[in-house]
Write a structure and sequence with these properties.
Layout (H helix, E strand, L loop, with lengths): L2 H22 L3 H26 L5 H30 L4
Helix pairs in contact: 2-3
Length: 92
């Protein structure tokens, strides 16, 4: 394994662990507003997918790009659905 790949895997694993710890500590009353705020973060991921798409030239790269784009798009759409449902609670 190359040192760059090892560093990338290390950062990924650490971010997954930190993310899990942070999200697991969120009380249920704050979960919906937190998910609604995650829309902006996933929007940035979609932009990152488009930037990376310009420089790919391998089949595995295209496959990983498709998976990243699908997850990011699902999170953006899901975040807007959650936000809409949350805002519906405040309408009469």
């Amino acid at each position: 394994m190359t040192p760059v790949l090892l560093a990338d895997i290390t950062v990924f694993v650490l971010s997954v662990l930190v993310g899990f710890e942070v999200i697991s500590k969120v009380p249920a009353t704050l979960h919906t507003p937190l998910m609604s705020g995650a829309n902006a973060i996933h929007g940035v991921v979609v932009i990152g997918v488009m930037i990376v798409a310009a420089s790919l030239d391998t089949t595995i790269g295209y496959l990983l790009l498709f998976v990243a784009a699908a997850f990011a798009a699902a999170n953006v759409v899901g975040g807007y659905v959650v936000t809409d449902r949350m805002l519906e609670m405040f309408r009469r």
